[in-house]
Write a structure and sequence with these properties.
Number of domains of chain A: 2
Order of helices and strands of chain A: EEEHEHEHHHEHEHEEHEHEEHEH
CATH topology of the largest domain in chain A: Rossmann fold
Number of helices of chain B: 16
Distance between the termini of chain A: 37 Å
Largest interface: A-B, 56 and 40 residues
Largest sheet of chain B: none
CATH class of the largest domain in chain A: Alpha Beta
Structural class of chain B: mainly alpha
Largest sheet of chain A: 6 strands, mixed
Oligomer: heterodimer
Helix content of chain B: 55-70%
Number of domains of chain B: 1
Shape of chain B: globular
Number of helices of chain A: 11
Strand content of chain B: under 5%
Number of strands of chain B: 0
Strand order of the largest sheet of chain A: 5-6-7-3-8-9
Order of helices and strands of chain B: HHHHHHHHHHHHHHHH
Chain lengths: 315, 290
């Protein structure tokens, strides 16, 4: 399976005495994997390690069976879109994408064809022959995305790819990511926009101060924190006090709090499945009218909050 | 759980050979440079001297043309001997012009990429730091070759053709001198320009540094010689190394070589090593320094 996954084995990176990442053991499978963590947590370091832009101080890693220290082979498979708004001076969007395809070794004809295909995918055809310096931030983000997908890599490493995009462009870009992932490509995305990460990712890697705190599906990670942080569920119903008194006797319920408007309540539980069964029974037996049942903290935002201790400035 | 259809197919078409990929950098650099009319005009002006030299060589071998000007062929042959000095002067003139081009093109070669944080963009390709440096170096090397090396050797061939009678076989050392001295100068200028470009972001300062490193050690060497009666100070000067090597290669009899051939090569090697060290320290893909 080594040739289908990205594998980190006990990888550490120090910048002098400053820790980049420490003792990272990670296996990244096809689909969309998001790296989530506050600024300076080590997300970009992890991405730079994957792309061979920096060498690990300790440990080893492979990207689909290829060592990052072998750029010739690695970058046939990998496309990288860094977080910095960087471009060689004076190029148009078209030239920017095409010139780097030439560096990849594509003939001028092939490079031209693939350049247009990539530019079409990010919806920048009309602006293709304008100078990148005259692009808006969102356009620059999109053209960088185009250059990273143009050579049709199987692995795409995208550092903050949604930064600077307006809501429409974000939705389009997320759709493109899902499309690529469904085709079997492996996407690694770092982002601060937690609700969008939550929406598009198959799994997340939470990182803080250079250490991996958790990895896996958001719900899986959330369940692992149930003991420490019971799950909160909000129930809107006509008789919240009575509902609270009925369910509170159950072992699965840790806490029940009435909502300020007296039209609902918050339940904290360490066993959501058992609670949902209890809820059904209580509702049927007592004839309580329930308007809605919704988990409050089973999303990435909550997981981030519980593991890292702040919302990380997420939007 | 996500279900993947695995419709993805990687690119399986033909690729250009890996060794030639560094040429992408000069290709785009020239597109950019020759957009400026002033630069193109300056480049064309660099061919005035080769043109004059071509005319001189032609006239020297054309009795009827000389007759038009009322000149005698044997007088001209005596006044205008075509040998080491003739080609040395040509090489010096063209080298000075190539220095001007180095000052124009060199300081922004790497500094722009560093300032724009564009280095990781290059290094995120099947492209190594070495290839990046070779690519950037070739921007200057190809351009300066077109001013110095190529016209010099073409003039030599033209003279050989017109002179005939084994002139080429007798004077092959001139071609060798043109090639060695021009190539060495190009490598030195390119390395110095790139090293300063990597370390100094401000174009004017980089140009001034380039100028200073090439010019200042020359009088310093003479000052040290005057004060301490030693030629060691000349080991600092690439210009003195150039003159000394030129004297030997072009077999010049009208000037003294202060440095020996070995010392001249040592100066070039030392400067090249320092430049490569400076480049290896700066040309890195780091994006994050915390």
């Amino acid at each position: 399976m080594n040739d289908q996954w990205i594998i980190f084995e006990n990888v550490s990176k120090f910048y002098g005495e400053i820790l980049g990442v420490n003792r990272v053991n990670l296996t990244i499978a096809p689909g969309i994997t998001s790296l989530v963590g506050p600024n300076g947590s080590g997300k970009t370091t992890l991405m730079n390690l994957m792309t061979g832009l920096i060498q690990p101080t300790r440990g080893r890693m492979s990207v689909l069976g290829v060592s990052p220290s072998n750029p010739q082979e690695l970058f046939r498979k990998v496309g990288y879109c860094g977080q910095f708004d960087s471009f060689p001076k004076g190029m148009t969007g078209y030239e920017f994408v095409k010139s780097f395809l030439a560096v990849h070794g594509l003939s001028p004809k092939e490079a031209e064809e693939k350049t247009w295909r990539a530019i079409e995918r990010v919806d920048l055809v009309e602006a293709a022959h304008r100078k990148v310096a005259a692009y808006s931030k969102g356009m620059r983000q999109r053209i960088r995305l185009a250059q990273s997908i143009a050579h049709e890599p199987v692995v795409m490493i995208l550092d903050e790819p949604l930064n600077g995009l307006d809501p429409m462009a974000r939705a389009e870009t997320i759709r493109l990511f899902r499309q690529l992932a469904q085709g079997g490509q492996l996407l690694i995305i770092s982002s601060h926009i937690l609700h969008e990460v939550d929406k598009m990712s198959d799994r997340v890697v939470l990182i803080n101060n250079g250490y991996i705190l958790a990895e896996g599906g958001v719900l899986g990670v959330r369940e692992e924190k149930l003991e420490e942080h019971p799950m909160q569920i909000m129930i809107r119903c006509d008789r919240p006090q009575e509902f609270a008194s009925r369910v509170f006797a159950s072992d699965s319920v840790v806490e029940a709090t009435l909502h300020q408007d007296k039209q609902g309540l918050f339940i904290k539980t360490r066993n959501a499945d058992a609670f949902y069964q209890l809820l059904n029974r209580v509702v049927v037996e007592n004839g309580i009218n329930v308007d809605s049942v919704s988990p409050v903290d089973d999303d990435l935002n909550a997981v981030y909050h519980y593991l890292i201790g702040s919302n990380g400035g997420s939007s | 759980m996500a279900v993947y259809e695995h419709t993805y197919k990687p690119y399986e078409g033909k690729l250009t050979s890996a060794w030639s990929r560094f040429l992408v950098l000069p290709r785009y650099a020239y597109q950019d440079l020759f957009k400026y009319k002033l630069f193109t005009a300056l480049f064309v002006l660099c061919y005035v001297c080769p043109l004059i030299y071509t005319i001189l060589i032609y006239l020297r071998h054309n009795v009827s043309a000389l007759a038009i000007f009322g000149a005698n062929a044997s007088d001209i042959a005596r006044e205008l001997p075509i040998g080491g000095t003739f080609f040395f002067i040509f090489t010096v003139i063209q080298t000075l012009l190539s220095f001007i081009f180095t000052v124009i093109v060199g300081p922004v070669l790497i500094s722009r990429d560093l300032a724009n944080n564009a280095l990781p963009l290059y290094l995120c390709r099947p492209f190594s730091r070495f290839e990046y440096i070779i690519g950037k170096m070739s921007v200057l090397m190809i351009l300066l070759s077109a001013i110095t090396l190529v016209p010099g050797l073409l003039l030599f061939l033209f003279q050989s053709y017109l002179e005939g009678g084994g002139w080429m076989a007798e004077n092959w050392w001139i071609a060798s001198a043109i090639f060695t001295l021009s190539f060495l100068t190009l490598v030195m200028l390119a390395l110095l320009a790139m090293a300063f470009s990597a370390w100094i972001k401000w174009r004017t300062a980089a140009s001034a540094a380039l100028f200073a490193v090439l010019i200042i050690p020359f009088p310093v060497g003479f000052s040290i010689q005057g004060l301490f009666n030693t030629t060691v100070g000349h080991l600092l000067s690439p210009i003195m190394a150039f003159i000394s090597l030129a004297k030997l290669l072009f077999r010049l009899e009208w000037t003294d070589a202060i440095l020996t051939s070995g010392e001249a090569w040592f100066v070039f090697a030392a400067y090249a090593a320092i430049c490569l060290l400076m480049l290896s320290r700066k040309v890195r893909a780091y994006e994050v320094v915390s």
